[in-house]
Design brief:
- By secondary structure, this protein is of the alpha/beta class.
- Helix content is 34%, strand content 25%.
- Helix 4 crosses helix 5 and helix 8 crosses helix 11.
- It is elongated, with a radius of gyration of 23 Å.
- It starts with 12 loop residues before the first strand and ends in a 23-residue tail after the last helix.
Length: 324
């Protein structure tokens, strides 16, 4: 009987000790990241966190100052030449005087694909724009066109940099439905976005970066729960009673705010705070809910937290279940 263990699956994306400097500016500062095939990963961070610089290095548009980038076990140039990687960027890459269909056909020809382009236009939701000149398309329609262009090589890894910029709410919803359909078929998707609701709704996993480093890595629920705890709110008969309770909680280490007669507390000790409110105050209509991804984002990527990383799996910067 063959007892040889199966070889581990090749990672879709493997970044090790990645650095990128521009003079004295360290845009990427020791970033490590693994992405498995078939994952949908949101790559989030504030402006200047190093997201776009990292994506540029994965695409071979920029070389690391130090560190290594492997895409399906190959260099970025090898993976791109094989058609295994494609990208939807924020701007550029479009000729305004040719039609939508001609643009996609031209892109397809670069990969030796001479077949009909209608299937790609349909998947991107722009089949009805086939004959329209690119310059007459809205910003959101041009983003969908970039998506169609990215699909023509049927890539294994799709990188999206602010892909829904310029789209309306319905357009964003349709776009993500198409992305999830592609992911369900096995495609790996890594996307950067400023729309945190998109990351919360569509990503299997969220990677937060700040100061060119990964500061948190896990599911949206893990990051929200560990980084920000829970939100408790309760009503009081008067604003004065609410302020009295807020002062007591704040002095004991659970900062609280008052909105009219409603008390709001964000805490990782939700049971203790709830017990205090119900037994030691006149609070009523107590509600307990999860913090938002925005709360976690602000806390983990704010100034001063990028150097707090730890390998302790209970740390807010390394949520339980995180991919290290």
């Amino acid at each position: 009987m063959d007892t040889t263990a199966p070889a581990p699956a090749t990672l879709a994306l493997e970044l090790r000790g990645l650095h990128k400097s521009f003079g004295d500016v360290h845009a990427v500062d020791g970033l490590d990241l693994d992405v498995r095939p078939g994952e949908v990963v949101a790559f989030l961070g504030p402006n200047g966190a190093g997201k776009t610089t990292t994506i540029d290095m994965v695409l071979g548009l920029s070389d690391p100052t130090a560190g290594d980038v492997r895409v399906f076990g190959s260099t970025p140039a090898e993976a791109i030449a094989a058609g295994r990687v494609a990208a939807v960027m924020q701007t550029g890459g479009l000729l305004k005087d040719i039609t939508v269909a001609e643009t996609v056909a031209l892109t397809a020809s670069l990969f030796g694909n001479r077949g009909p382009v209608l299937p790609f236009l349909e998947r991107a939701g722009i089949a009805e724009l086939a004959g329209r000149r690119v310059g007459r398309c809205s910003g959101g329609q041009q983003q969908r066109l970039r998506f169609a262009m990215a699909l023509v090589s049927e890539p294994d890894l799709l990188l999206l940099d602010e892909p829904t910029t310029g789209m309306d709410v319905e357009g964003r919803r349709d776009f993500w439905a198409a992305i999830r359909a592609d992911a369900a078929a096995g495609r790996t998707v890594v996307f950067a976005t400023h729309y945190l609701d998109e990351a919360d709704a569509y990503a299997d996993r969220i990677v937060l970066v700040a100061g060119g480093r990964v500061v948190a890595d896990g599911s949206a629920a893990e990051i929200k729960n560990v980084a920000s705890g829970r939100v408790l709110s309760a009503s009081f008969a008067t604003p004065e009673l609410a302020h009295d309770a807020a002062r007591d909680l704040t002095s004991s280490g659970s900062p609280a705010e008052v909105r009219g007669t409603r008390l709001i507390v964000r805490t990782s000790a939700s049971d203790d705070v709830a017990r205090h409110l119900l037994t030691a105050t006149s609070a009523h209509d107590l509600e307990v809910g999860a913090s938002s991804l925005e709360d976690a984002f602000v806390r983990l990527t704010s100034s001063g937290r990028t150097d707090d990383r730890t390998d302790d799996p209970t740390s807010p910067t390394a949520p339980t279940g995180a991919h290290r």
